[in-house]
Amino acid sequence: MEHVRLVIITGLSGAGRSEAMRVFEDLGYFCVDNLPPNLISKFAELLQKSPEVQGAALVMDIRGGVFFSELQGSLNELDASQLPYQILYLEADEETLIRRYKMSRRRHPLETQGRLVDALRKEKEALRELRGKADVIIDTSGLTALQLRQRISDVFRLDGTQSLFQVRLVSFGFKHGLPKDADLVFDVRYLPNPYYVEELRSKTGNDEEVDQYVMRFPQAKETLDKLANLLAFLIPQFQQEGKPQVTIGIGCTGGQHRSVVFANRLKDLLTQAGHQALVEHRDLDLREE
């Protein structure tokens, strides 16, 4: 008998847990919101006796109050059981969380007489240890609801590919900030920049002319070979650790040319090597003037 896939959804208030739960429901998971931590092991026992349930998702957050402090003990009990689980941790930067709370006109669970920013920082500190135990961390700061849905679906969908380890390649521009959920970040700004070639400036790394320009330089070819070799070594290490996904950021100045070329090239190489590789060009819509 196959185990039920159990996912614990947690993270910062305002980071998208409610939206995430809707995604899991659409994926066919049985979902429970704000279950007291001391009931997790009992819930797990019930799951093991319910063959019709393929997957279950639990939303755990700071609303649990004193119950939340019991979560670690409940996770220890779960570790000792026969049911494996994963933790999905959602976060966003402080500015984004403040903006979302102002738009929703809702009060933060820890906001009493103090400021919202103080409540956000208190919650972040309270969840620091739990974040360190997470299997998947998603920063929702720059994500639309559709992008969040796709990210969750890519990792947690209930089908024949759900157990495959996934490599997510993200091209980005350093001028727009690092991808906060990246496990590894590589910088290719030292390579010749197509932005300074007039006929290539308005194009992107998805265009054949830009790809050929970037890769005609010996240092670009050598960089690609060395990165491919490094990933060939590192990816099995992540797999052994039990992570379902690793996120690799490839950055150039604006996220339009060099990083896009390298993300695409690495995706192709990893796919050829038998890995399930996904590519996301984070800053491609932020056109250079």
Give your account of this protein's structure:
There is one protein chain. The chain is an alpha/beta fold and 289 residues long. It folds into 2 domains: 5-156, Rossmann fold; 166-281, no CATH class. 41% of the residues lie in helices and 18% in strands. The chain is built from 11 helices and 9 strands. The strands form 2 sheets. Strands 2-3-1-4-5 form a 5-stranded parallel β-sheet, with helices on one face. Strands 7-8-6-9 form a 4-stranded parallel β-sheet. Strand 2 (30-33), helix 2 and strand 3 (55-59) form a beta-alpha-beta unit. Helix 1 (17-26) packs across helix 7 and helix 10 crosses helix 11 (258-272).
Query: Can you count the beta strands?
Result: 9
The CATH C-level class name of the largest domain: Alpha Beta
Give the fraction of residues assigned to helices. Answer: 40-55%
Question: Could you describe the largest sheet, including whether it forms a barrel?
Answer: 5 strands, parallel
Q: Enumerate how many helices there are, as a single number.
A: 11
The outline comes out as globular
Strand content: 15-25%
Structural class: alpha/beta
Q: What low-confidence regions span 5 or more consecutive residues with pLDDT below 50?
A: none
**From the alpha-carbon coordinates, what is the Rg to the nearest angstrom?**
21 Å
CATH fold category name of the largest domain:
Rossmann fold
Round the mean pLDDT to the nearest integer and report it: 86
Superfamily at the CATH H level of the largest domain? P-loop containing nucleotide triphosphate hydrolases
InterPro entries: P-loop_NTPase, RapZ-like, RapZ-like_N, RapZ_C
Keywords: ATP-binding, GTP-binding, Nucleotide-binding
Pfam families: PapZ_C (PF22740), RapZ-like_N (PF03668)
GO molecular function, one term: ATP binding
